[in-house]
Design brief:
single chain, 291 residues, alpha+beta, Jelly Rolls, nine-stranded antiparallel β-sheet, five-stranded antiparallel β-sheet, 8 helices, 18 strands, binds 2-oxoglutaric acid, binds fe (ii) ion
């Protein structure tokens, strides 16, 4: 692991939520090495969006240089004024809030329009990614990781014993599960700090301003276990990122005419071209739109 601080490395290796395999995947960014990977640029209104397609099953893309550097910097300035709390979980044994073994990060939630700059970033995302209604996303979760920080591989979907039980909770009933995670990076670590997807043996080492976008559910709203991911350990420096968890209600991405439920992945990959397509007199093969 090169010149990685041995004590930090030992700590991660002894953490039951991490494994050598995960850490190795963290250290090997797949840029250019994955035969299934490709890139394209789409244009929407006057904006261009650079897309790196890492995987379609599960869906994982990186939007390169997506958030302007000056926006990221302004947001960072605002965040400095916020009190970031150590992210804790409820200890199963004591019932008390305790720092989590699975995650070592400071963070806070901010409403989309909390600050002019968060609003600007929110609108920036929405304009360039119109196939998703980001108003249906939870608040920005800002996460900041210092050296030794990490978030061990986990899934973002909410887990309940059953859909019936879940729906007793108004918060779930309104939004449904977490369909998509949209994460953008405002500050990169000096060493480490990518996002790892162990089930597809991939990690993304983002640059400042890049956004990493993936789906957590399948087309039937089932839990997509291959969306397992984590924040790789930070060996040096600080990483700051913000997450939008987009809920599924109002964001059904299903093909209008598919007999079997399937996502309309093109809507995510080429939103602008899809808009043009929809302007044409488009008919589906299975006749559901026939006059
Ligand atoms: O910071 C990262 O790379 C991952 C964060 C994450 O997985 C989450 O907030 O759910
Ligand atoms: Fe996550």
């Amino acid at each position: 692991h090169g010149s990685v601080d041995q004590a930090l490395l030992d700590e991660i290796m002894n953490n039951p939520h991490w494994s050598e395999e995960y850490v190795n995947t963290c250290n090997g960014d797949k840029i250019g090495g994955d035969p299934g990977m490709y890139c394209h640029i789409y244009r929407i209104f006057l904006y261009t969006v650079k897309v790196e397609v890492r995987s379609l099953e599960p869906f994982l893309i990186v939007l390169k240089e997506f958030i302007p550097i000056e926006y990221a910097d302004s947001f960072l300035e605002e965040i400095k004024k916020e009190e970031l709390h150590i992210q804790s979980t409820v200890d199963q044994n004591t019932g008390k809030n305790a720092p989590s073994v699975g995650r070592n990060a400071n963070g806070t939630f901010l409403t989309h329009h909390r600050y002019p700059i968060s609003s600007k970033i929110f609108n920036h995302i929405q304009q360039r990614f119109p196939s998703i209604d980001f108003r249906k996303a939870e608040q920005f979760q800002v996460l900041s990781y210092n050296s030794g920080g990490h978030y061990a591989p986990h899934n973002d979907y909410l887990q309940y014993v059953s859909e019936e039980v879940a729906n007793r909770c108004p918060w779930y009933r309104e939004g449904g599960n977490r369909l998509m995670t949209f994460l953008f990076v405002m500050q990169t670590a000096d060493k480490g700090g990518g996002t790892v997807f162990p089930r597809i043996a991939t990690s993304v080492q983002p640059s400042k301003g890049d956004a990493i976008v993936w789906l957590n559910l399948d087309a039937e709203n089932g839990k997509l276990e291959t969306s397992l991911h984590g924040a790789c350990p930070i060996w040096e420096g600080t990483k700051t990122a913000a997450t939008l968890w987009v809920r599924v209600r109002g964001n059904e991405l299903l093909l209008p005419c598919a007999n079997e439920k399937q996502f309309d992945i093109e809507r995510l990959l080429y939103p602008s071209e899809k808009q043009l397509l929809l302007k044409r007199d488009w008919k589906c093969d299975n006749g559901c739109y026939a006059e």
